[in-house]
Structure formats: structure tokens, C-alpha cells
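A student in our group prepared the protein record below, which I am reviewing. Here is the record exactly as it was handed to me.
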Amino acid sequence: MTPGIQRACLWSGPIFVAVFFGGILAAGWLPPPEANMSADEVADMYRSNTDGIRTGAVLIGMSSFFQGIWAALMSRQLRRIEGDRPLFTYTQLAAGGIGIIVVIIPAFVFATAAYTPERDPEITAALHNLAFLCLVGVGWPAILQCVSVGMAVLGDRRENPVFPRWFGYANLWIAFAFLPGPFIVYFHTGAFAWNGFATFWIPANVFGAFFAMWFVVLRRAIESEAAEDAMAELSDVELQVQRG
């Protein structure tokens, strides 16, 4: 993969975040709806904003396209650290692939709920709950990604490491911030409901900071790789000249 292609792929991260949260905004879910809404209230929400929710579902699903590119680019740079023993590289890539599914499934469930909003409110509410529980609560792929990245970065013993050491610790802390998400199944109100401070607002802000941080360090890694390749090519030319 050439540096030019990697530089282009680098923008998939910010685009993913913009399209994903654009879908949340289009659906009118920022702040997210209360987790303890009645079936009739949920059904009324889908009837009053049917096209907005449909558009939001399309955008949320579309964002997964850029999410996949981003995960692949992350693995490309992690592979520079691990070489021919890419345990954490492959783990991060697998977790990123599962993360795509975690985005696509809620998008289609939201779309299903909005597809026929005049149905029985209990069915609409069940679909709505399923989508939000999946979107907010299935945090394990993101946690696994962050742990894999953190372990790979902290295990880098190169003289000029691909990523700074602080970045490894930052990923482990980000994984910790995502931990409350899976426990939303126990709560309908409060900080641990799907619209709560601990399970939505903290992870959402960490999510944004995660991509901003990754963007900076990935860009530096891409440029350092390009410089290394240029030096290697120059050395090869000089060697050929000496032999000639």
C-alpha cells in the first residue's frame, strides 16, 4: 500500500465519525431518546419523524463503509510493529470487522421499525429497543480493538517506534471508558441507561477523541514509513552505483 493510498484512507476515520453522528442527528437522537419510553411514545416518535429516522438509519449503515477502511489502515500500521507475528494486528482487524456488524445491524433494525410505523406499537418499541441496545451496549469489539492496539504499541521495541508509547496507554484507558456500555441491559433510567452519562455521553466523547488521536498518530506513522521507504530506496541506488 503506497503512502498516497494510505493518506487517502486516513480520512476515512473523520468521515466515519461525521456520517455516523450525522445519522444520529438526522434521526433526532442527540440527545438519545429516554430508555424508559412507553410503547406508544416510541411509536409516536417513529410516526412523527419517519423520514428522519429512515435517513438516519441509512447514514448510520453507510458509515460502516468508512469504518472498514479505517480498521484496515490501523492494522496496516500495526503490522509494522509485529512483523511476521501479527497477533494483535489480526485481533484488531477481526474486532474492527465485528464492529462493522455492530453498526450495520442497528441501522437495519432502525430502518425496519421506521419502514412500517403504523404497525402495533409494541413491535415498533421492541425493534427500537433492540437497535439501541445493540448500538450502545455491544462495546466488546471496540474494547478488544483498543486493548489489541495498546498491547501492540507497548510491545514495540524498535529504536524508532511506529507509535509513541503514551498512545498504547491511552488505548487501554479508552477501553476502560467503554466498559459500562454492555451493562445498559440492567437499567432503564440513570447514568447506566442507554442515554446515560456513563454509557452514552462519556463513551461518545471518548469515541470522538479516539478518532482524533488516531488520526494524528496514524498520519505521523504513514509519513515515517514513507521516509523509511525513501531511505531504503536511496540506499539501494547507492549500492547499485557502487557495484556498477
